[in-house]
Amino acid sequence: MSPTPMLRIRPATVGDAMAVSALVLPLAREVVDAPDATAFLATLGPDGMFERLASPRFAGLLAEDGSGACGIILMRDTTHLYHLFVRRDRQGLGIARRLWRAMTGAGGSTQGAPARFTVNSTPSAVEVYRRLGFEATAQMQHSDGISFLPMVCERPLNACPVTR
After folding, report:
1. What is the pTM of this model?
2. For FRET with 43, which of 21, 49, 60, 91 sits at 20 to 30 Å CA-CA?
3. Helix/strand/coil (H, E, C) string of 87-125?
4. Residue 89 neighbours by CB under 8 Å, 6+ apart
């Protein structure tokens, strides 16, 4: 695949709830472990996305290209990476890295101030988060049909290393 030169990253709004849900749900269905993940999947529907995008606790950025919404990053309380999804046909093009850099660069913190970012990574995304500078803080966890690895990126803001 070739790079996506026409990528636009902009703040996600409540008006994007349907598009974000349509982007996230098919990807999330691939990573759930069991039928008891129904409650989790319901939170990814348009209503759940609307609630998060409307909440002052969440901030999100949406990546769009000529085909529409192709990536989303959503942070809770400025330090927990709540969602980072890239549409399957756009994966491997650096969109997740660009979303992460855009989100952490928008933090408004003093240069060099410590920052601690957390994420609960699905098994299939662990390597992506490692390339973004995250390290595991515990063993794989299982809850409500979801497997996840707690991870942290503890670096000065804007300095979480991004590797290839």
Report:
1. 0.84
2. 91
3. CHHHCCCCHHHHHHHHHHHCCCCCCCCEEEEEEEECHHH
4. none
Is residue 90 within 8 A of residue 71, CB to CB? The reply is yes
Is residue 59 classed exposed, middle or buried when 0-12, 13-18 and 19+ CB atoms within 10 A define those classes? buried
Task: Report phi then psi at 42, rounded to 5.
Answer: -65, -30
Q: Residue with structure tokens 């390597």?
A: 127
CA atoms 58, 61, 113, 82: torsion sign:
positive
CB under 8 Å to 95, separation ≥6 — which residues?
4, 7, 63, 70, 71, 86
Place of tokens 């939170």: 43
Higher pLDDT, 143 or 92: 92
Q: Bridge-partner residues for 153, per DSSP?
A: 117
Q: From residue 36, how far is each of 26, 32, 120, 129, 144 by CA, in Å?
A: 17, 9, 18, 26, 6
